[in-house]
Specification:
By secondary structure, the chain is an alpha+beta fold. It contains five helices and six strands; from the N terminus they run αββαββαββαα.
């Protein structure tokens, strides 16, 4: 693998880390109904843990309500149980055909907790990006040791990897700022 291939691979991995962090941000409640709140919920369906979004249509009839309409009506109670046991913190209302989740307005304390959660998720993303930096620098050093690139080229590639790291951490910080603003806006 050439040094340029290593750079491309590292940039791709850093981009994936940012995308994963964004997906995790989407699972944090902001006081408005959003179907992505239920992305992590899995329902026991014929002995198999199945993602809720594969078993039902999830819609937002208004800003404070999520409506879950299962494709198979017999799964209503299983879906209701999965939501009750999840960490979403919402109480399902089952009317026999659909399940409604009312999203209550967030208190100041809950908003602060969600901001802390978002910061924790962002730090996990930063760690992932730094791990990619370390992997890339190690790969470049191996090429230098094998005399495939010169010492100067090695230093240049390491500087380039550091620039990529700074760029993707800055993007992640921007995502975090947007999410914090979203959470704290009443």
């Amino acid at each position: 693998m050439s040094a340029d291939d290593i750079l491309l691979e590292i940039e791709d991995q850093m981009q994936k880390a940012n995308e994963a962090t964004q997906r995790n941000f989407n699972t944090i409640r902001t006081g408005r109904a959003n179907a992505s709140l239920l992305d992590r919920i899995e329902v026991e369906y014929y002995g198999v843990a199945t993602p809720l979004k594969q078993m039902s249509n999830i819609s937002t009839p208004d800003a404070s309500t999520l409506m879950i309409q299962p494709y198979d009506g017999s799964t209503l109670t299983a879906i209701e149980r999965a939501i009750s046991l999840s960490d979403v913190g919402l109480t399902p209302n089952n009317d026999g055909k659909v399940i409604r989740l009312n999203i209550p307005p967030l208190t100041t304390e809950r908003r602060q907790e969600f901001v802390k959660t978002a910061n924790k998720i962002a730090e996990e993303g930063r760690v992932s990006i730094r791990n990619q930096r370390r992997n890339g620098i190690d790969a470049i050093k191996k090429l230098e040791k094998a005399s495939e690139i010169s010492e100067d080229e090695s230093r240049d590639y390491q500087d380039e990897i550091q620039k990529l790291t700074d760029k993707y951490i800055a993007k992640l910080d921007d995502l975090l700022a947007i999410k914090e603003k979203d959470i704290t806006t009443v």
